[in-house]
Amino acid sequence: MGSMVARVRRQNPFIFTLALRAQDAAVVLARDLVAMAFDEWELAEISYDGRIVISELVTNAVRACKPDGDITVRVYLEEGDPVLEVWDESPLLPEFQVAGVDDIRGRGLFIVRSLVKDLVVLRVSGAPGKVVRAVMSR
Ligand SMILES: Nc1ncnc2c1ncn2[C@@H]1O[C@H](COP(=O)(O)OP(=O)(O)OP(=O)(O)O)[C@@H](O)[C@H]1O
Ligand SMILES: [Mg+2]
To answer: Which residues of the chain carry a pLDDT beneath 50?
Structure first.
């Protein structure tokens, strides 16, 4: 039994998933999910970066949705690399901005891009909204 559990853990079938309402408190829970997942995968060295990434993406999703709108976070491994996905129901798309010297906003996605190896926005056929998908390097 013990060895079966060990084998399942090595294969990493987990998709850590969290359905959230668009509220500020959602961001804390998303960070906790990433901490739990990276702990499971023994990715302590990049866990803090992962929490920053999910924080920025979920904060954007909360702002984009109407209050209590639907947000889903999925965190999983792909070829060993952690993937962080945030779906939200807003039809608006992220805009990669270059913040002006006086702007107090507009840097989140810039920071995210520097922490990940791939960042894309995907439409899901048949569903509203979009997924922002970040792939980190193990
Ligand atoms: N999930 C999203 N849905 C709709 N629009 C988004 C989403 N994420 C980002 N955006 C748009 O892209 C812009 C840039 O996002 P970014 O995170 O870089 O900056 P910000 O959220 O405005 O400010 P900051 O993250 O620095 O507090 C946002 O202002 C918003 O217009
Ligand atoms: Mg932002």
So the answer is: none
